[in-house]
């Protein structure tokens, strides 16, 4: 560090100090999701708005611009391939984005987001879309304003937002990947439906005492490598993984006594995110080299542990005896094969987060389609429920009976996360491609899982994915790891080779 | 507000905005006490230090000084008796204190305080004073530096610190009040010891399942008037009440299956603090008119609900049948009189927070004596354990067997709270005097408690204590409420009239 240009040292110090301030806001957000008393929501919005404004002020300070201008000579940073050069490149990108946004808008987005989310929680609970509608309208307007301020190469407002979560991605790129995937998924779903095989999914809605669910979840999260010395697991309305600082990663889940997979796979999913966060270089917290590559890559980590590991036969060969023992009332008469079939039951459902591996991506495509229209101004909050239901029907052949099971189910839009959903499906694709490579390099993963050995995979991910931070763009990272360009094929192959035998497909 | 001078409006806006920022730090502090993963402590110190520095910068900004200078004409504020004049007076006091402290010191106090507290937690757990000693040494040095920067009329460093918690109080005032009290307490303790009466305190260390303890605590806190719509109860190493915003008051307690009174009276105690906080004018949050009068008055509220209400016979005439039902294993063979005797068992103990009403104040006097010496520079962290044990022996005739039961028991010094302890004993005195007046005005309080009616007292406190915020100094407030000057006599009278009959004293 000492031999770096002074401007670089100053920049790093300032970025890491801004990260401290931002992380304070994360503590407040986490608390908002987990423990906030109802009447405190309004003031929490003021607190978060103030912190957002202060962070924005510092992140857009002219001195950062000056340092960045002094750092255009990449040779002084150790060459264009150096970590320092990547940090500067990403700092520049962040600075340019931030300076396009007025402080008023940033504060307003934070303030309205907090209140809107509280409104969403109540609306979803009461299945009352009308009370949420004005908040969504406000949020869409603010995000359209943000998109207009940011601009995008394509001229699409949606691209400006998407780029924030998946740097470099565009509507066009995502659409192409989805198109390739959609056809094959629809075909696979139809084949499964027509197979006549009916997994006994109802065993998963027997009685599973929540405290025991919590214990098993903690145990599994720890087993796959999430550290509770620098993390926690709590309860919130919407499961999440929230980083409150370089050694402070908080997972949440929700328990339903009559639904085993929700909390268990939710915990594995969030633990997957958490393992990524814990695998980042904590000394570079606040710099690109210490931050996640993209939300798509983030999701690749959560979906890998949730599905490619957590819903595999090998995983349950290890965990099922213990699980069966913990839930004698629900599982004493259920053998492993039946349980495995049930947790891999493929059928259209209302709720995205509870969807199986095959239909899940269709839920994303539906949202991708709808949120593009919301941000383009082609669709209003007023029309949303109707359009949601119709589009849902076109994808799944059925209509949600309530809005809570329809357009009210996800938190994202309430806090302005438009352009976020596609990263989930990208994550599934990245996950399969990366996981396939891990198997090639590490040898027989199922044999390891069967013995409860998850450390080799975790450490391989630490080294090949986490350690790079945001040095590469997501598709570059995938190509660097796997040696082949990013593609939907590994995901399709995985689904076919897993569900083909399960459903007796030819 | 609109007819107030512009400088007043600006001042109020800025003070309330600083309060938002300070409240963010409170969220982080609360989380530190309750849910922080072990490895996150170091970064939490950075976060809190940054927020402390930023708050300090704003609180000492010259524009506040300019507004205050423009507001010397109290007539423009509605006269010297107006709430606005009191707000300005207190703002001036706060500004003058703050501007005497360099930002570096404020940040250092925050940073070291966070780490030192973590060290204290570990040291107490392991009964290992040596690991805590360097932190305490550092803390004493920082607080001495703070006291020197602040100065005091008496010239005593300790007075500069005391004044922060109990505005207007001095070593001399406190010493006089304590002297008056000590003699009579020692006499009463001796009489009780010689009475031959032996309450069956061992019934309180039978098995009380913690989840049931929690439920009873929640129920009782709610019954006396703490609102869980704008508050919570969690678990922490050291019980506390922490305000995170105008409608966000967090209580904590700790449960021990083999010790009923700890969590129960701890919860009542913290709920008493919480009821005070919830009774303050939330629209004036950040101004003197919306803040507590002093820590002594704060403690008067917690001790009133804990002891004057919660350890009274009438309270248990209402709560005992339910309690007995909740803990059949521990209490089915215990009648009300025996239980009442046990929770009012007077005997020397090691731990302050578990002490009875009579000996409690002696624990405070001990600390008052010792912390004066620490701050005066007459006593070092090196010498503390030995001096603690000797002084403890002089007060209680016995020597703590471990440091965890001795000088390591309290969190206060680890976070630099020197000058804080005396407010606990002042609180006991204020509480008795105020409670006596409440009885005079409201009529027969025990009859109300017997019926589970706590609202009249709570609302009387709302009106007579809470609504005034920090308009008055503590002794003034007590005199205004009761019509007589502050005195230790009501406390002594209360103790004699309660414990005399219990121990068959003449």
Main attributes of the structure:
homodimer; mainly alpha; Neurolysin, domain 3; 2 domains; three-stranded mixed beta sheet; 21 helices
Tally of extended strands of chain A?
3
Radius of gyration of chain A, whole Å: 23 Å
Number of helices of chain A: 21
**In whole angstroms, how far apart are the ends of chain A?**
59 Å
Largest interface: A-B, 36 and 36 residues
Q: What would CATH call the architecture of the largest domain in chain A?
A: Orthogonal Bundle
Provide an overview of this structure.
Two copies of one chain form a homodimer. By secondary structure, chain A is mostly helical. Chain A has two domains: 6-150, no CATH class; 171-502, Neurolysin, domain 3. Chain A has 21 helices and three strands. In chain A, strands 1-3-2 form a three-stranded mixed beta sheet. In chain A, strand 2 (240-245) and strand 3 form a beta hairpin. In chain A, helix 5 runs antiparallel to helix 6 and helix 11 packs across helix 17. The first copy, chain A, is globular. The interface between A and B is large, with 36 and 36 residues.
Blueprint (SSEs and pairs):
The structure is a homodimer of 506-residue chains.
Chain A: H1 6-34, H2 41-59, H3 62-70, H4 83-99, H5 103-126, H6 129-150, H7 157-165, H8 171-194, H9 210-224, E1 231-235, E2 240-245, E3 248-253, H10 260-279, H11 295-309, H12 313-326, H13 328-331, H14 336-343, H15 357-376, H16 384-396, H17 422-442, H18 445-450, H19 455-464, H20 474-482, H21 489-502
Parallel strand pairs in A: 1-3
Antiparallel strand pairs in A: 2-3
Helix pairs in contact in A: 1-2, 1-3, 2-5, 5-6, 6-7, 8-15, 8-21, 9-10, 10-11, 11-17, 15-16, 15-17, 17-20, 17-21
């Amino acid at each position: 560090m000492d031999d770096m240009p002074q401007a670089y040292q100053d920049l790093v110090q300032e970025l890491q100090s801004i990260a401290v301030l931002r992380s304070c806001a994360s503590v407040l957000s986490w608390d908002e999701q987990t423990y906030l008393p109802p009447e405190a929501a309004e003031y929490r919005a003021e607190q978060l708005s103030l912190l957002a404004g202060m962070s924005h002020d510092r992140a857009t300070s002219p001195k950062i611009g000056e340092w960045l201008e002094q750092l255009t000579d990449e040779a002084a940073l150790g060459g264009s391939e150096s970590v320092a050069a990547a940090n500067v490149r990403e700092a520049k990108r962040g600075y340019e984005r931030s300076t396009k946004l007025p402080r008023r808008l940033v504060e307003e987005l934070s303030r309205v987001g907090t209140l809107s989310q509280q409104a969403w929680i109540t609306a979803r609970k009461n299945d009352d879309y009308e009370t949420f509608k004005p908040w969504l309208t406000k949020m869409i307007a603010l995000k359209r304003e943000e998109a207009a301020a940011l601009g995008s190469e394509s001229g699409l407002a949606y691209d400006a937002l998407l780029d924030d979560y998946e740097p470099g991605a565009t509507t066009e790129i995502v659409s192409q990947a989805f198109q390739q995937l959609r056809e094959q998924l629809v075909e696979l779903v139809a084949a499964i439906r027509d197979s006549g095989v009916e997994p006994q999914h109802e065993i998963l809605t027997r009685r599973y005492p929540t405290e025991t669910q919590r214990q098993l979840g903690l145990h599994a999260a720890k087993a796959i490598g999430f550290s509770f010395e620098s993390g926690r697991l709590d309860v919130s309305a919407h499961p999440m993984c929230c980083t409150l600082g370089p050694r402070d990663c908080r997972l949440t889940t929700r328990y339903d006594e009559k639904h085993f997979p929700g909390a268990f796979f939710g915990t594995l999913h969030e633990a997957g995110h958490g393992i990524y966060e814990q695998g980042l270089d904590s000394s570079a917290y606040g710099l690109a080299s210490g931050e996640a590559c993209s939300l798509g890559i983030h999701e690749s980590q959560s979906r890998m542990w949730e599905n490619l590991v957590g819903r595999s036969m090998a995983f349950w060969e290890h965990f099922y005896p213990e699980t069966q023992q913990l839930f004698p009332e629900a599982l004493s008469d259920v053998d492993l094969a039946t349980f495995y079939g049930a947790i891999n039951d493929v059928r259209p459902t209302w709720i995205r987060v509870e969807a199986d591996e095959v239909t899940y991506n269709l839920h994303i495509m539906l949202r991708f389609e709808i949120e593009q229209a919301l941000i383009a101004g082609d669709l209003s909050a007023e029309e949303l429920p109707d359009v949601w239901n119709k589009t849902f029907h076109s994808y799944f052949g059925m209509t949600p009976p309530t809005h809570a099971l329809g357009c009210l189910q996800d938190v994202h839009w309430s806090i302005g996360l438009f352009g976020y959903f596609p990263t989930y499906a990208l994550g599934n694709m990245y996950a399969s491609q990366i996981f396939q490579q891990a198997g090639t390099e590490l040898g027989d993963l199922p044999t390891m899982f069967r013995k409860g050995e998850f450390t080799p995979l975790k450490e391989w991910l630490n080294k090949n994915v986490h350690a790079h931070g945001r040095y590469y763009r997501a598709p570059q990272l995938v190509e660097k790891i796997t040696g082949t360009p990013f593609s939907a094929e590994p995901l399709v192959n995985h689904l076919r080779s897993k569900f083909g035998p399960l459903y007796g497909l030819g």
